[in-house]
Each structure stands twice: as structure tokens, then as C-alpha cells.
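Q: What changes when iron/sulfur cluster is included in the input?
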Amino acid sequence: AEMNRELRERLVQLKKERNAIILAHYYQRDEIQEVADFRGDSFLLAQKAASTDADTIVFCGVHFMGESAKILAPNKTVLIPDERAGCPMADMVNVDGLRKLKAEHPNAKVVTYINSSAEIKAETDICCTSSNAVKVINSVDADEIIWVPDKNLGHYVQQHTDKKLIIWEGYCNTHDMLTVKDVVEMKAKYPNAEFVVHPECRPEVVAMGDFVGSTTAIIDYCKNSSAKEFIVGTEDGTGYQLRKDSPDKTFHFATKYLVCPNMKVNNLKKLVKCLETMQPQIYVPPVVADKARLSLERMLQVK
Ligand code: 13P
Ligand code: SF4
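A: The predicted holo structure follows.
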């Protein structure tokens, strides 16, 4: 606790020196969320990165999030506490595979989940996140959509659009692990609880949800619901904001395995160190960034 206090004091000082803003995803460790200037889901964090006037953005999340921030704010320094924090789902799609699919479906437009590399975004018509996926799909001027890389979110979106999705077979290891059996057991144990679930979970699990949405949407729903008890089907870091917003409510995570090990690679010590050394910085080659930026900016414009 003493060490964390010293780290937090050092952080306040460094933030001023570097004119830095600290952005944290809801899946980050509590010790990071506590000191963040702004917490959010993937969409709100991308929006914040695009609009901040700080010189330095410290992105506490996984690598693709830092990359998206750098693409949207190319003149700013974007730091990430540990560049080894990756997203296995983002790595499940490669440029060659996507180009092949585009060649097979020349009339289709490509909608890419923000959980993807800059190279994939550069091959994309428009990006989306879990909070705006349906809106984005319905805004696209094409009947056929190539959807990468999350098959579970793709299945969910397909149920809310008349367009035909050609779905890539990627998935989030963390959310995909949650099973119907897990949820059935939790519902038996907590019969009065509402089940809130992220659309990165399997379709049959999502179908059991009393509410389906992005991290921010889940947090807002729980805050406003009249229910007092929830079974949560998303990553455990979300508990920080859920409990902060609704101290009188009870949150049971659906299993103890709803932990993204990549998100937890970052910690307070590494956060302070990256602002001290101004390393590691996110770099995206300008030719890639310029193309990828279009797909992200189109997403930010969807109303
Ligand atoms: P959201 O931030 O859109 O809820 O997505 C969750 C996620 O898995 C981020 O990696
Ligand atoms: Fe990737 Fe899933 Fe972790 Fe999000 S929770 S960073 S989608 S592995």
C-alpha cells in the first residue's frame, strides 16, 4: 500500500510534466482504473483519444487499442505500459486471408471489429465496436458484409440486420469460455439476479441474457435497472466500475475464469515507468495509418 501511494504521487507529477492523459479500459486492474483520468469501453476510449488535447496519451489496455489511439491522434505520443499486452482475437485474422475473402466477394463491404491490427483496419471500409456494431452495419451501403474477426459478435449482429454477413471464425478466448452450463448453475444459485452478457460470448450464452451489450452498456444498464443482483458475463475488471456506480447492488461474475490475461499484463508500476521513460511508444507506419484512419473516422461519424 505504501509503495502504491508513492507510485501514485510520482504519477501525478509525471502527468503534469508530460501533459499526459491516462485512458483505461474497464478490464484493467483496479490499481490502474483508480488512477485513470478516463475509463471506458473500446468506443468511448477511441473517441476520447481522438478528441483530447493532451500531448501524451497513456493507453492502459491492449495493443490494438493503443494503435487505434495513435492512428486517430498521429501527432501525439501514445504510450502503453507493456507492449506485450496483445489481443489473441485480433491475431486470428491476417491480411492475406482477408484479401482472399474480398476477392471472392467483390460487392461486399468490410466491417471490422476494432479488436484488430492496423494492417487489417487499412483493408477495411468501416470499423465498429461492440457498442455500435448494429448501427455501423446498418449504415453501410451494401447488402453483403465481410465481418472480421469475431464470430460471436458477428452472430449477434446478424440477428439484428437484414444484410448478409460473411463471418470470420475468430473469437475472444476469455468470453468464449463461458458456457450455458455455467450460466444455468449461476441462475439456480441466484434466482433473483439478472444475467447481463457481452456479445463476445457464444450465441447460446448471449441468448440467455436479460441484457446484452458492450462493457459501458452493461455498466449503464446495471446502474439503471431496478434489479439488486446481477450475474455478469464479461471480464472481471468491469467489477470496479459496477461496484463504484452501484454500491448497493451485488455482482456475481458468471465464472472465476472471466479474466483476460492480456489486459492484466499492465500494472501501476509499469504505468508509472512508461511515463518516466516515455517508452514503449506505439508506432504505426504512416502508409498503414493513413488508410486505417479512414475506417476509424467513418465509425466515429456514425450517429
Ligand atoms: P468493449 O470495450 O466494446 O466492451 O469490448 C470488450 C473487449 O473485449 C475489449 O477487448
Ligand atoms: Fe481480446 Fe478478449 Fe482480452 Fe478483449 S477480453 S482484449 S477481446 S482477449
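Observations recorded in class: The longest strand covers residues 20-25.
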